[in-house]
Each structure stands twice: as C-alpha cells, then as structure tokens.
Amino acid sequence: MSSGDFQTYFHTRANRFATFYSSEPVARALGRGPLFDRLRLAVDTTVALGAKRVLDVGCGSGPLFAPLAAKGIHVTGIDPAEAMVALAGQQAAAFPGLVEVEPRGWEQLTEVDAYDVAVALGVFDYIGEPAELLGRMGRAAGHVVASFPSPGLRLRLRKVRYGAHGVAVHGYAAAGFGRLASDSGMEVVEVVPLGRAGHFVHFRRQAGVRGMTDRDACFEPALGELVGTVETAKAASTSATCSEHGTRRRLVLHVLPCDVARGAQVFARDLRTLLDDGCDGHYILTLFRSPPTVLRADSSLEVPMGRLRSLGFDPRVVVRLRRVLDTLRPDVIIAHGGEPLKYLAWVNRGDTPLVYFAIGTTTEAARHGARRVLYRVLLSRADYVAGVSVETLDEAERVFGVPPNRIVLLPNGRDPQLFRPREEVAHGGDAVSLVFVGHLTTTKRPFRFLAAVDELRRRGHDVRGVVVGDGPLENEVRRAASLSGCVEVLGRRDDVPALLRAADVFVFTSVPESEGMPGVLIEAALSGLPTVATAVPGASTVIADGVSGFVVPPEDDEALLEALEQLVTNDELRHAMGAVARERAVAAFSLEESAKSWQAFLDRIAPHDRAVRTAGQPAPGSEHFDEGGTTGELLR
Q1: 57 forms bridges with which residues in the sheet?
Q2: Are residues 402 and 507 in the same domain?
Q3: Same domain, 140 and 243
Q4: Within-domain flag for 597
Q5: Are 588 and 630 in contact (CB under 8 A)?
C-alpha cells in the first residue's frame, strides 16, 4: 500500500482511529489493549536509548507526542493523511519547539542520520514491501522500533474487513524478522510478543553501515556512472600490460544479489581486487538496493527489496539487468549464487559466456519435483558451472544434469596475511577457548555449540565459549548464554581475524543443506586453529580428519563432544593440528591460489584476443578442465 492509498483511507477515518487512544480502559475492554502496550514499549525503548530526536512515521493523531515530549525529546511526526495531520497538529500545539508535524508520506522520507530513533506503530500492517520502508527509516535513524501484526484468524478477519474498502493488510511471522532486517541493512535487537496482536520489534542499523542517501530514481545515474568508470579504466589501461595477452581489455561482470556481511560477498570483493588490473576489468553489480556493508560494489540495479523478491521473482530486475548488459557488453558474466542466475539465465543474449558460481548445495526440496526441473533448466542456460567444492559439482552433474565438460572446481580462498596464527602460544593454565563464528540461524545451530560448551564444563573441563555473529536467533542465543555463564556472545564484529587468533579451537555445527565450502573453515585453518566440524559439503576438503581437526556426523552429539575433549585435554595435539591446518590452508586455500585458478579459467573461456562468439558457440578451451597443482591434489 503506497502512502497515497494510505492517505485516502485514513483521511476519511481519522477521527475513528483517533478514538482508539482516547481511553485505555475502554480500549482494553474492546480488545485493543496492545495499542497501549506497543505505545509504552516505544516510549521506554526510546528513553532507554537516550534519544534526543525521534521520527514518528505514520504518526496518526499523535499519541506518541505527549509521552516523548514530557521526557524532553524532540519529535517529528509525518503522515500522508491530511485529517490525521490536522489532529496531530492539535496535539503538537501543546509542545511548541518540541513537536512538529509534516504532511508527507514515506516515499518522501529521504533524511540521512537526522534522528536517533524512528518509530512506526500500526504502519507496517499496510505495507506491501516492508524492507523498503524499514531501509528508509534505518537510513534516517540508527534505531527503528515498529509493530507488526501476526498471521492468524484476527488478521484474516481484518483482511476481509479492510479489503471491502480496497485496503490490503499484511501479517508477519516472527521467524521472518531476521530476513527483513538483513534485507534492509538492519539487525534485530529485540522482539516482544504482543499476544494475538503481533510483535513489537527493535531494529538497529548493521555495524559499519552508514546512512544512505535516497536512491529511488538513481538507477539511470548509477548506470551512467558505471559506464563512465568502465570507459575511463579502459582508456587508462596500460598498453604494455595488455600486450602480454592481446590488445583488448577483458571486462568481467560479477553479479550478486545484494551487499550483506556474508562470506560470498567478502570473497567476491577480494577476488575482484586481485584480478582487476590494467588488462582485466572486474566489476561488481548488485541486483537489489542495500546499504554498503562489505562488498564495495561498483554499481547496483537499485531495485528495492520487498514482496516481489520474497515471492521469488522481480521483473524490474530483468528490465534493468538487460539494459546493463546491452550497454556494457561484458566478455564474461559470473552469477554468484542461484538468485542472480535465475535472472541472468533469461537476460543474457547467449554471445557472452555465463558462469554460475555454485557457492553452496541446494536444499533437499530443490532436488525433487518441479523445483528440480526449474534448476535443471536454469543450469542448462549457463555455459559453465564453477563450484567451490567437489560436493557442489557432484550435485550439479548428478542431480541437475550438467555435463562434466561444463563444470570446473574453483575453491574458496582467504588472505593468509589477514588470517594468521597468534605469535605466542597460550599458557597451559588458561581456560581453553572454543569459538563459533557464523550467522545465527537455525541451519548454523548455535545452540548446539552452547550445549557442547556446557557439557564439557559439566564433565570437569576448563573451557569457555565465544559466539561471533548476528542473525534472527541472536536474542535467544544471548539469553541462553547468559544462563550458561560460560559463553560470551559478541554479536557481529569487524575484527574476526583477531578473535580467531585469540581462540584455541574452532567449532562448526551447521547442517549440510546449502553449504558448499564454508569460508570460515578456511579462516580458522589459516589462523592455526584445529577445527571440529560437522560433515557439511567442503568440510572434509579443508579439514584432514584426525590430522588438522575432526569431521563428525551432523547429528552425532557424542562424536562432537569426544572430538572436542581430545583437543581440550591435549595441548600438544591441539597445537600440532593447528600447525598442519595452517600449512594445508596456505598451500591450497590462500586467496592468491584461488585467484590464480580463476585467472586460468577465464583465460580459457574468454581469451583476450578472442573474436565475438555467435550464440550457442562454445568458447575456446571449453572442452575440459584439468585441475592440477597443489589445490587439485588436495581436493581429490
């Protein structure tokens, strides 16, 4: 629902909605008590944060004004409905200099870092693309507090009642707040149930993300800027450098969904940095609008994240992506993951090699039925499938029917200088530090890590746990860790290399689904840590079981504990395994080795002096790929 539709509906019903806040006892008698519960939560959270300036989005008749102004907090209320603004103005008049009201909708919310907290109570009920609004609020303020109705009978009745007036109402399951936050450049701080009415959620801007300027109409300038960057680099390229390979500069376009703090984005960024030189131009393009986090993308299609993306396909991406490809005419296109592939598979004209970089295996559901058919079609439209592990390539060939001559193994890599062992060995009397680094989701299973630390301590071992990462389960993990008393939850951190150096053992507890070759296993190995990991794709490639760590069955808790006990109780074994882990990782999984493999692969499929291919014609050197050298030997 746009703010224009919102304006029409609430303009005609302003007085009715205002009466909801006229008497709390009456409201509670009518079953509307949560209106006052969320109001108090918003005020208490705002005060606890020490906010001085608050933005009230969809302020209605201004029920927040008095309690916030009474605390000396400056409030700016915005609402697109004129009648609501008139009622809010009457409330604001009682607090001159502290409260102001503006008649505007959220499409006009363009401020950056202008407020401490942004509030939206009863607004997301009517928003079809919540990530866009949440992102705008997050750019305007570092913290966002909002209410969200839950799915259920109550919501279905509202849908019928409001639908009769042409107004759509949306519900939000609690499990989806983490994804919504991530899509908006935010993270969840707290979720408070409001009974059948839904949830009150406190978000904060992701660490390291600054406010963004409004970019609703920025696709054209972004495309122009990207074209200018490419042309400038082409003109400035050193002829001597290019003469080593030919006379034309090769343009490689890396396409990712968005910028989030994940391993795939970090690897794409680092790979671009290493491969981009005078003769090769590597550029990163994101499909969806997102705050700058770790990727440092060269450009974006600026498509807002919202309901269309959550449904699986946004046609705006197709239109804009085709314009980018027709304008840039890259020599190679690399789809980092399945989401970019489903767009590039239909947009690419066929005269440019399309590489699908399989960064993980698919879910079990995708291996059967209609979804399997769809994956087979998508992968058939890619010229090559590059996988980070043997398991990802085996799935591509065995499950999705990709011919062996179109697949190539290109493992993950990390920087050995950034991820390195600590210089001094820990003293024997110190507690053994076990560390978990990952996104706090059900598939990463952080609670299994907490349980393992607790059990080791119950068995009399002097250990402590450290959890690094954020995600939808962060609050639950913090609560569980506080009860344990021996695990510290640090949240998302930018100093992961230092935290790994400070640890003694790395613990990886994920389920196998969707994993490919977890980059964090490489980071731990380069840091000189022995690892105990569940048997996910890529784990046995990075970890030599019994030599540089242990690989245990995903559901075998006792095997996990036994492996940890061996490392916790034997300092010599722990240090020896860590040394072997470092040696293997430097040889096979350094960023430099990974870049060399990619360079060789690109030279085969798109030589610098190649002529433009016709659609469907194989690229030179595509007959087969023979992985050799140290990496190939370790991966076999």
Answers
A1: 78
A2: no
A3: no
A4: no
A5: yes
Quick check: 484 and 467 in contact, CB under 8 A? Answer: no
Contact between 79 and 24 (Cβ < 8 Å): no
Quick one: 385 and 449 in the same domain?
no
Say yes or no: 161 and 245 in one domain. Answer: no
472 & 570 share domain: yes
Q: For the chain, what is the domain count?
A: 3
Contact 590, 414 (CB under 8 A): yes
The 3-state DSSP class for residue 97 equals coil
Alpha-carbon distances of 12 from 1, 8, 16, rounded to whole Å: 16, 7, 9
Structure tokens at 166: 């042409």
Q: Residues near 619 by Cβ (< 8 Å), separated by ≥ 6?
A: 353, 383, 604, 605, 606, 610, 613
Q: Which of 409, 442, 457 is the last residue of a domain?
A: 409
Q: What are phi and psi of 234, to 5 degrees?
A: -65, -45
Per-residue tokens: 418: 């950034």
User: What angle is formed at CA 268 by the lines to CA 627 and CA 501, rounded to 5 degrees?
Assistant: 90
- The CATH number of whichever domain residue 38 belongs to comes to 3.40.50.150
198 and 284 together in one domain? no
CA distances 392 to 11, 386, 397, 402, 538, Å, are 55, 9, 9, 11, 9
Q: Do 79 and 182 sit in the same domain of this protein?
A: yes
Let me know: does 145 contact 177? Beta carbons within 8 Å.
no
**End position of a domain, from candidates 354, 374, 409:** 409
> What proportions of the chain, in percent to the nearest 5, are helix, strand and coil?
45, 20, 40
If we measure between CA atoms, which residue out of 571, 551, 433, 559 comes closest to residue 503?
Answer: 433
Task: Tell me if 513 is assigned to some domain.
Answer: yes
Residue with tokens 């995903």: 554
Full residue range of the structural domain in which residue 347 is found: 229-409
Examine residue 548 and state whether it is found in any structural domain, yes or no: yes
d(CA 387, CA 586) in angstroms, rounded, equals: 20
Distances from the Cα of 579 to the Cα of 280, 572, 576, 602, angstroms: 36, 11, 5, 33
The β-bridge partners of 283 are 253
**pTM flag (> 0.85):** no
- Does 276 reside within a domain? yes
pLDDT per 10-residue tile (average), the chain, 636 residues? 46 54 66 80 90 92 90 92 86 91 83 89 85 89 92 78 74 86 86 86 74 48 71 58 58 92 88 84 91 85 81 88 90 94 88 92 85 92 93 92 94 92 72 94 94 95 94 89 91 90 96 87 96 94 95 95 96 96 93 92 82 38 38 35
* Dihedrals phi, psi of 588, to nearest 5 degrees: -115, -25
- Edge-to-edge strands of the sheet including 250-256? 299-303, 280-288, 250-256, 332-336, 354-358, 384-387, 407-409
CA distance 148 to 173: 9
Shared domain check, 249 and 388: yes
